[in-house]
Amino acid sequence: MPSYCCPPPPNAHPRLPSNGIPSGSAPARDNTLSTISCASCRMRDLCLPAGLSDSECAGFERLVVRRRLLLRGEILHQMNEPMQDKLYAVHSGQIKCYQVSYAGEQRITALPFGGEILGCDAIGSMVHATSAQANCPSIICEFNYSQLVAAARNFTPLARRMELLLSKALAHQQSVNLMLSLPRAEQKLATFLLQTAWACALRGGDGITFELGLSRRDIADYLGLTDATIARLLQRFIRYGCLAVFRRRFTLLDAIRLRDIARGDYHTGEARRAQQAL
Questions:
Q1: Which CATH architecture has domain 183-277?
Q2: HTH crp-type domain spans which residues (predicted)?
């Protein structure tokens, strides 16, 4: 797939002023992605430029090396591939991060949405611990890690924002670990659906209906379950009246009952429905 804009040649990054954010307008990009900017991005409040003024955000735009459109199934980076001093932000779409065992089995480890940062797993070792693949057509913003660090050293709000995003990533991973430790498959799937709806609501969704680029096998892989178990549970949730599914679109019809299931508090849900029937 052709690049939609080319990165600057080595050592051609703009000189940073005292505040660490380059001044002036951003360089011209390919027309396909030329309408995208940090200042107008709907993910701005969730991404690195959050909290910056419009003028600072315009300068931050120069830290974006390039933007790439990934088609469904296209790989952003491979497991064990050198980091090459790159970090990425998801502008739109959905990405899945996964590892492949020596036996060739895939295990999904993360599902970043818009505004989230990719590549942080490689900062220590300079090698990616996972592969990253687009679940649907997705736009990715590419940054030079060294230049981001240099800007953050001279501009405290950016440094604070990078720390906050790393902290949120750790907290999210802890919540995923907690979800995977739940004793029942129903709890895992209900928690996953609720967390996904909440993540989509933060990105402009209604918190009720959302689309996933994942197959049932991908969902099963992420939750440590089988494809057959996911299919059976989805039909059960539909039968309960708490979920509707059309192709890859999910609608939470009864989020309260799903929360009951996620907590493992099935009796509370039954009692509530019995009271409503009176």
A1: Orthogonal Bundle (1.10)
A2: 183-256
Domain ranges of the chain: 44-176, 183-277
Count of CA atoms in the C-beta half-sphere (13 A) of 226: 3
Residue 88: which residues within 8 A CB-CB, separation 6 or more?
76, 117, 118, 119, 132, 140, 141, 142, 143
Q: pLDDT per residue over 19-43, tens digit each?
A: 444 444 444 444 557 788 898 888 9
pTM: 0.79
Task: Note the CATH number of domain 44-176.
Answer: 2.60.120.10
Angle between helices 266-277 and 255-263 (to 10 degrees): 150
Instruction: Report in angstroms the alpha-carbon separations of 63 from 57, 76, 166, 194, 272.
Output: 10, 19, 19, 35, 53
Q: Which of 17, 21, 15 is nearest to 152 (CA)?
A: 21
- Which region holds residue 20: left if phi is over 0, alpha if psi is between -120 and 50, else beta? left
**Residue 87: in which H helix or E strand, if any?**
strand 86-92
Alpha carbons 6 and 108: distance in angstroms, whole number: 30
Is there a contact between 97 and 132 (Cβ–Cβ < 8 Å)?
Answer: yes
